[in-house]
Amino acid sequence: MAKEEPPSVSRDLQELQRKLCLLLESFQNNSKVVAFMKSPVGRYLDKHPFLALTVLMFVSMSAIPVGFFLLIVVLTSLGALMGAILLEGLVISVCGLSLLCILCGLGFVSLAMSGIAMMSYVVVSCLMSYWFSPRPLTQQTANTDCQLAMKSTDFEGLYQE
């Protein structure tokens, strides 16, 4: 029986990296993305990636509460057309304060999630570069022998004193 070799992890990672590079290149060549990146806001966010990630998470997480708020505004506006002006003002005020509280909370959550995402990215990239960096076997054994020799000379110096 012939041995079956498992698929090479490095070849799979290179293929994945190639596909991701093509996807990023297609996004970067989009005319709307190019126009946004030339604007002052795009240049500022390009220089501050942590802020860009925080804004992206905040906007994506605040879409549902803002949608509910707008739905309540439309429904209460319909109620105002029927003569419930005091009820509309009360409901919009309460909902506006509720939305303010929710958006402040989402701002802090998105800031924390951005920090966690950035730290995770740094840790994972460091671990990936450490695990998949090419290290010849001869250097590892020579380095270990050198460290052992240095430790033994340190102990000999201690015993002589």
Automatic annotation (TrEMBL):
Classification via Pfam families: Promethin
Membrane topology value: Multi-pass membrane protein
Entry keyword set: Endoplasmic reticulum, Lipid droplet, Membrane, Transmembrane, Transmembrane helix
Compartments (UniProt record): Endoplasmic reticulum membrane; Lipid droplet
Transmembrane segments: 50-73, 85-109, 115-132
One GO location term (cellular component): endoplasmic reticulum membrane
InterPro entries (UniProt xref): LDAF1 (IPR029709)
Superkingdom in the source lineage: Eukaryota
Family from the record: Belongs to the LDAF1 family.
Name listed for the protein in its UniProt record: Promethin
Organism per entry: Neotoma lepida (Desert woodrat)
